[in-house]
Write a structure and sequence with these properties.
Elements lengths: L3 H4 L3 E5 L5 E4 L3 E5 L17 E9 L4 E7 L3 E8 L1 E6 L4 E5 L3 E5 L4 E6 L7 E8 L9 E5 L9 E7 L7 E2 L4 E8 L4 E5 L5 E13 L2 E4 L3 E5 L3 E17 L1
Parallel strand pairs: 13-14
Antiparallel strand pairs: 1-19, 2-3, 3-4, 4-11, 5-10, 6-9, 6-11, 7-8, 7-10, 9-12, 13-15, 15-20, 16-20, 17-18, 17-19, 17-20
């Protein structure tokens, strides 16, 4: 018989960078944390409302042609290089390293994403969350926070309602950018009944006894507060999900 206390003990499941799915198209090198496109793994179909987390490198001049989306909260975080975005709402932007782009697809939107450079690759994270409700008018926003975020702190980027400078999104989620110097610790307030996904962009973290380095992710359950320790200067994303 299961011990009731053990069922509610903190739980972490590491998703090593090297174990992710891979798509190679010449102009695109994509690692998939969860099942996506031709990569299908029943053991990795998402985490709570987090549906897609792709680590993409697009070669100079390459990109995704115009294609449709609906009923998805879509985020891009540019790690290095630049990403040019155009959509059917009339937005046309070049997103630079350290910046984030948000698009709520709602009832339907078409967009394209290209690397405008003729010489340098573009490296970015493509993230999709499941919205609270289907439909609604599509929406677009940007956050230029990565390069200006405070040291040894979490910066709230997006939340289910506008608060603390966050952009409101249509999902039961808070998304934070974290920057932590080697040897420093940082607390994440998750709240009862919520799950946490961590994704390391640079450096190395220790979380509940697990070591996470560049490209590693981890799902954490049964915690209300979580302590992160940096083994090397680290940058990372934190998703607190209902």
């Amino acid at each position: 018989m299961n011990n009731p206390s053990s069922l509610n003990a903190p739980k972490i499941a590491k998703r090593p960078a090297g174990a992710r799915g891979l798509t190679e198209l010449g102009w695109l090198h994509s690692h998939h944390t969860f099942s996506f496109g031709d990569y299908h793994d029943p053991a990795h179909m998402g985490f709570r409302s987090l549906m897609v987390l792709n680590d993409d490198v697009v070669e100079a001049g390459g990109g995704f042609g115009t294609h449709p989306h609906r009923d998805a909260e879509i985020f891009s975080y540019v790690v290095s290089g630049e990403l040019e975005h155009r959509d059917s709402m009339g937005n046309g932007r070049v997103i630079k390293a350290g910046d984030l782009q948000y698009m709520s697809a709602g009832s339907g939107v078409r967009h394209s994403e290209f690397n405008p450079s003729k010489t340098a690759p573009a490296h970015f994270l493509q993230i999709w969350l499941r919205p609270r409700e289907r439909g609604g008018a599509p929406h677009y926003a940007e956050r230029a926070l990565g390069s200006a975020a405070q040291a040894n702190a979490l910066t709230l980027l997006f939340a289910g309602e506008s608060r603390d400078g966050a952009t409101a999104i249509r999902a039961d989620a808070e998304i934070y950018f974290g920057r932590l110097a080697a040897g420093k610790t940082l607390a994440v307030a998750a709240g009862a009944g919520r799950g946490v996904w961590l994704q390391v962009i640079r450096g190395a973290l220790n979380v509940l006894g697990e070591s996470l380095s560049v490209g590693d992710g981890a799902a954490v359950e049964h915690v209300t507060d979580l302590t992160l320790t940096a083994h090397a200067d680290a940058e990372f994303l934190v998703f607190v999900l209902g």
